[in-house]
């Protein structure tokens, strides 16, 4: 079975450029999560969706970050303009039973972003 | 969400049992405890979860104290591939479905 699929796996971009990260959740999963991981801050939840609707975006660092989920099989996380401090690994994850414990969340392999 | 406390790091000899403790003294009666791990350069991976009873699956065992204030994840025969950061999470009873990761325990399995 295909897991959570993220693209690109690696991206190097210049400061000020727009970055778009993409995620395909596991088919049939109703919840989708975007996490960011850095050495300094660890694994942080940025935003999550239930049934394509953003439920909690309190972890989004600032207005430069935006996330969309136009349908059940696709989500994007966009950074515009990008800054060096955005360099991190961005994980997408999905879950099959939103809001009902126990939830098992499945993670993708991450998108490694470097902003120079 | 209940606050969890884990040791920063632990070592374990290959082939021996690895016992990873977690304190969650503020956990409420209907909050589950979840364990995930993250092997270097990979996404976090679900291991096991429990509420009150001890649990076992193909990856590990979870022992929860009777008062539910702490738990221990047991890897019965640790291998080098079990070297990872292990996260204990008590996401709360708010039914949001989201998991908040702390710093976890870095387990180093040594030959």
Question: Uncertain regions of chain A: pLDDT < 50 for 5+ in a row?
Answer: none
| Form type of chain A | globular
The helical percent of chain A reads under 10%
Principal-axes shape call of chain B = globular
Mean pLDDT level of chain A: 92
What is the N-to-C order of secondary-structure elements of chain A (H for helix, E for strand)?
EEEEEEEEEEE
Mean of pLDDT of chain B = 90
Q: How many individual helices of chain A? A: 0
How does this model look, in words?
The complex is a heterodimer of chains A (116) and B (111). Chain A is an all-beta fold and 116 residues long. Helices cover 0% and strands 54% of the residues of chain A. In chain A, β4 (31-38) and β5 form a beta hairpin. Chain A is globular, with a radius of gyration of 13 Å. Chain A starts with a strand and ends with a strand. The mean pLDDT of chain A is 92. Helix content of chain B is 0%, strand content 42%. Chain B has strands at 9-13, 18-23, 33-38, 45-50, 55-56, 61-64, 70-75, 84-89, 105-110. The chains are: A mainly beta (116), B mainly beta (111).
Give the gist of this structure:
The complex is a heterodimer of chains A (116) and B (111). Chain A has 116 residues and is mainly beta.
Tell me the layout of helices and strands.
The complex is a heterodimer of chains A (116) and B (111).
Chain A: E1 5-7, E2 10-13, E3 19-24, E4 31-38, E5 42-50, E6 53-56, E7 65-71, E8 74-79, E9 88-95, E10 105-107, E11 111-115
Chain B: E1 9-13, E2 18-23, E3 33-38, E4 45-50, E5 55-56, E6 61-64, E7 70-75, E8 84-89, E9 105-110
């Amino acid at each position: 079975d295909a897991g959570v699929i993220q693209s690109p796996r690696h991206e190097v971009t210049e400061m000020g450029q727009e970055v778009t990260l993409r995620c395909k959740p596991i088919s049939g999963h109703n919840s989708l999560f975007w996490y960011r991981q850095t050495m300094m801050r660890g694994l942080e939840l940025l935003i999550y969706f239930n049934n394509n609707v953003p439920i909690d975006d309190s972890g989004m660092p600032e207005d430069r970050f935006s996330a969309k989920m136009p349908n059940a099989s696709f989500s994007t996380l966009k950074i515009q303009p990008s800054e060096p401090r955005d360099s991190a690994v961005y994980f997408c994850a999905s879950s099959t039973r939103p809001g009902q414990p126990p939830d098992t969340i499945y993670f993708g392999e991450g998108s490694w972003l470097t902003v120079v | 969400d209940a606050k969890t406390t884990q040791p920063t790091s632990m070592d374990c000899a290959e082939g021996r049992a690895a016992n990873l403790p977690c304190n969650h003294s503020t956990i409420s009666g209907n909050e589950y405890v979840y364990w995930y791990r993250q092997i270097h350069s990979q996404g976090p991976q679900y291991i096991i979860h429990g509420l009150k009873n001890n649990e076992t699956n193909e990856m590990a065992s979870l022992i929860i104290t009777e008062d539910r204030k702490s738990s221990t994840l047991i890897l019965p025969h640790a291998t080098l591939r079990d070297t990872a950061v292990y996260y204990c999470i008590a996401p709360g009873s708010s039914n949001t479905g989201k998991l908040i990761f702390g710093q976890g325990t870095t387990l180093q399995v040594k030959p």
